Amino acid sequence: MSDLEIWIVIIALAIATALTRSSFWLVGHKVTIPPRVQEMLRYAPSCALAAIIAPDLLLDGAGTVHLDLGNARLIAGIASVAWFAWRRRMLETIIFGMLIFTALRLLHLYQ
């Protein structure tokens, strides 16, 4: 790919990003979203986060589901969920989960 093609792709992506992000600002007040859809959109960020995290916790390197106690990521994820249920603080949950995962790896309990 030539330098010109790379710049064309970058500019096209910038325009596409600006158009999609500004569309709500430009026509947002003219479109009425039904209350049912608004209620469903409240769960979109948590669904997206779960879709990002779940494969990393459940799949091994070969792409197979790994649900037993030999999965250090799954154990750290479960511990993080328990920590969040107790403390309700996101930053503490992330730090606690990473500490558990690192401790499991350093103690060679899991590979």
UniProtKB/TrEMBL annotation:
Organism of provenance: Pseudoduganella lutea
Keyword match Ribosomal protein: no
One Pfam family linked to the record: AzlD
Keywords carried by this UniProt record: Membrane, Transmembrane, Transmembrane helix
Keyword Transmembrane helix: yes
Record-annotated membrane-spanning stretches: 6-28, 40-58, 70-86, 93-110
Protein name per UniProt: AzlD domain-containing protein
UniProt superkingdom: Bacteria
